[in-house]
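Exercise 7b. Backbone tokens:
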């Protein structure tokens, strides 16, 4: 397998990450590394990929643990192959008012959404060569302050800004960096953040999101919008003040909360 390049997908046990992994066998000469906490899910996905002839490694790592970042680097060094693709998809989110969230949940969120992404990228960039690609999964939320998702949205804004800056820095080496900004996607995310999923006509399918993300990243796009809502968010952010958008979003959240309370009481 020494002729293969490594493709690392974090958060690969479900959702967008799993779908990206399923599309990677379409890229030639890759050894796919699946990274997430849930070994059973990774093993099941790995078997399905191997059935298609893909070379797959399962790394059951908790990226909230800084030790896992070093372990990932050490495994790449031991393999002795270049990293052709790094897909930073791992992330979590919480909904609700900032002051009602625990300090532990806040630390966990920023540790995974920001620290793990940045440090893992820093550790793996030295193993990349001309033609390698970094794909950072951000969000349409990256374009606005979002009351009720204040920290999550801020971490995604960080991912977008970091990706665009890193893209310029790595351009002379021929390494491409792409920020993917999905709209609402049908995944376990909504259950994990304790929020109701948006109506189906507003959501994207994870499979389609992953397909668009990989196709556009392969073309070297800086920012990829995988749905109409995220593209609309980028346009509105250029037209309207952030303070106004935050107030409008907060008003809508409050309206929906009052409606839900009224329904529960009635």
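Sequence design result:
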């Amino acid at each position: 397998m020494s002729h293969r390049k490594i493709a690392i997908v974090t958060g690969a046990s479900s959702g967008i990450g799993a779908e990206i992994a399923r599309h990677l066998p379409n890229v030639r000469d890759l050894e796919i590394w699946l990274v997430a906490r849930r070994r059973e899910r990774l093993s099941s996905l790995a078997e399905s990929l191997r059935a298609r002839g893909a070379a797959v490694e399962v790394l059951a790592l908790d990226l909230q643990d800084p030790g896992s970042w070093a372990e990932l680097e050490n495994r790449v060094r031991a393999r002795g192959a270049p990293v052709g693709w790094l897909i930073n998809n791992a992330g979590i989110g919480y909904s609700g008012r900032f002051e009602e969230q625990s300090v532990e949940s806040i630390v966990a969120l920023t540790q995974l959404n920001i620290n793990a992404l940045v440090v893992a990228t820093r550790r793996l960039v030295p193993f990349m060569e001309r033609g390698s690609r970094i794909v950072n999964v951000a969000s349409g939320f990256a374009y606005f302050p979002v009351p009720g998702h204040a920290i999550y949205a801020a971490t995604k804004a960080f991912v977008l800004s970091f990706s665009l800056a890193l893209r310029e820095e790595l351009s002379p080496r021929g390494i491409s960096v792409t920020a993917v900004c999905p709209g609402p996607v049908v995944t376990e995310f909504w259950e994990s953040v304790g929020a109701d999923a948006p109506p189906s006509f507003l959501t994207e399918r994870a499979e389609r999101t992953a397909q668009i993300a990989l196709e556009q990243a392969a073309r070297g796009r800086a920012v990829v919008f995988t749905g109409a809502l995220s593209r609309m968010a980028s346009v509105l952010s250029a037209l309207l003040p952030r303070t106004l958008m935050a107030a409008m979003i907060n008003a809508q959240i409050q309206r929906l909360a009052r409606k839900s309370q009224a329904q529960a009481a009635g």
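Instructor comment: The mean pLDDT is 90. The first strand starts at residue 5 and ends at 10.
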